[in-house]
Amino acid sequence: xxxxxxxxxxxxxxxxxxxxxxxxxxxxxxxxxxxxxxxxxxxxxxxxxxxxxxxxxxxxxxxxxxxxxxxxxxxxxxxxxxxxxxxxxxxxxxxxxxxxxxxxxxxxxxxxxxxxxxxxxxxxxxxxxxxxxxxxxxxxxxxxxxxxxxxxxxxxxxxxxxxxxxxxxxxxxxxxxxxxxxxxxxxxxxxxxxxxxxxxxxxxxxxxxxxxx
Length: 213
Ligand code: AMP
Hints:
Layout: E1 2-6, H1 10-21, E2 37-39, E3 45-49, H2 55-60, E4 66-70, H3 71-77, E5 82-87, E6 93-100, H4 105-110, E7 115-119, H5 122-132, E8 136-140, H6 147-151, E9 156-161, H7 165-169, E10 172-181, E11 183-188, H8 189-194, H9 196-209
Parallel strand pairs: 1-3, 1-4, 7-8, 7-9
Antiparallel strand pairs: 2-3, 4-11, 5-11, 6-9, 6-10
Helix pairs in contact: 1-9
């Protein structure tokens, strides 16, 4: 049995064409079912649905042989013990700094002010602001980062931006682009040795179906 860990939403939807290229179709709709283990048209392949930030843990400890997860998750939570063969170029977005549209970020940075920054990405944010020599107090949040500057909780946020619509709807503007993010295929190292042939076939099929830039 080969087990692939995916999170619901964008990663699940954008992984489906890659699976199809490997001759695999998921036979249940995760949005309509409460099942956490989904069958596929291949009796030896199943999909497990986990939280995006749990995908690396499943793959690392062998709860799944393969997984698809964002580079943001891998960099923030660690990618030890996993083989990372492919940038799938799906779920593309960027990690950015955003502030209220009436906040003068450039002046605050120039004056050496200490910024309060709310984010889920405490590690990546610490590294980024340290590399710029900007002093920050980081506030860890688990969701709806956009609310923090609007309520006075923080001066800035570090979050994923795709279309920019969420920022715009909340009167926020992007002031720094930290890095481009996309989803990666990760593979359990022991599984790659023990189930080499079927896993290699999936990796090769995914590689051939990666969307071009
Ligand atoms: P957008 O309005 O298209 O810029 O999307 C921004 C919202 O979607 C923010 O709440 C982000 O945290 C989330 N988001 C954007 N892209 C991704 C992604 N690739 N993976 C997970 N969340 C994302």
